[in-house]
Amino acid sequence: MLNYQAPLDLVFQALADPARRAMVERLSRSPASVSELARPFDMSLPAVMQHLDVLEASGLVRSEKVGRVRTCRVDDANLKLAGDWISKRRALWEQRFDRLADYLAEQKPKSKRRRKS
Amino acid sequence: MLNYQAPLDLVFQALADPARRAMVERLSRSPASVSELARPFDMSLPAVMQHLDVLEASGLVRSEKVGRVRTCRVDDANLKLAGDWISKRRALWEQRFDRLADYLAEQKPKSKRRRKS
DNA sequence: TTGATAGTTAAGCATGTACTTAAGTATCAC
DNA sequence: GTGATACTTAAGTACATGCTTAACTATCAA
Which of A6, A74, A89 sits opposite B24 (nearest CB)? Predict the structure, then answer.
């Protein structure tokens, strides 16, 4: 397990680059070939391929080659994984916030704070 | 804008490291001091500090020092930013999937495919 | 079979990242 | 003041990342 990278590491790492996010954005609309994907970028094809490798390694994108054209598409599963992780942290954070609100609501009436209006 | 890093770059980059995710996880339960935060890790204090710098630069964590103790807490805003980005891509992706389903639903009855059951 | 198209591989290079150790600087408790 | 506590800064190192150019391999079309 020394060289193991957790799926979330790979997904967040992949999303940390604006070019790769743009590619995911493009692919979430519809599948595309490598050159279609490369077109908007001021970047060599090999560079685009390397971004694609990162996206595939992270599981955010799958691709298959037919003839000389490789068609890429989004794979939702790992995007969901990342979304779920974030949701869980946010839920915990808000839960804590609610507990604080409850605590304050319990304390305030007993204190000599002035009423609203 | 040459050296500018978009907020999402910083947030996803920050979340790409398991130690930093663990810190966010810890802090989403309650605020903590630097040494509390460091305790679970087999890592020097300066290393923890550097992770904290990354988290603060990304806006995921805020901190303030009182006396000699720095207290860190989660800042939800940028976590939400990342969550929203992911939700949007997923929504687009599913929308496309639905359009495909509609298309198939429209085509199937006209074809000579066999009925279900 | 020849040329154009679509992608791939390899090598190299400049920066960035994730640590480390060593040596600080402010509190705080007595 | 003195020592312990809680960070903080600086410097160095190993490896990862994001590109580049050059050269190559498979289609496909005529």
Answer: A89
Q: Which residues pair with A33 in a beta bridge?
A: A71
Which residue from A minimizes the CA distance to B58? A16
What pLDDT, in 10s, does the model give residues A70-114?
999 999 999 999 999 999 999 998 887 666 666 556 565 544 444
CA torsion A27-A28-A29-A30 (nearest 10°) is 50
- Which of the four pLDDT bands, split at 50, 70 and 90, describes residue B30? very high
Closest C1' nucleotide to A33's CA: C6
Q: Could you give all domains of chain B from N- to C-terminal order, each with its CATH number?
A: 7-77 (1.10.10.10)
Distance, CA of A92 to CA of A94 (rounded, Å): 5
Cα(B21)–Cα(B17) distance, rounded to whole angstroms?
6
> DSSP string spanning B3-39?
T---HHHHHHHHHTSHHHHHHHHHHTTS-EEHHHHHT
DSSP 8-state symbol, A100:
H
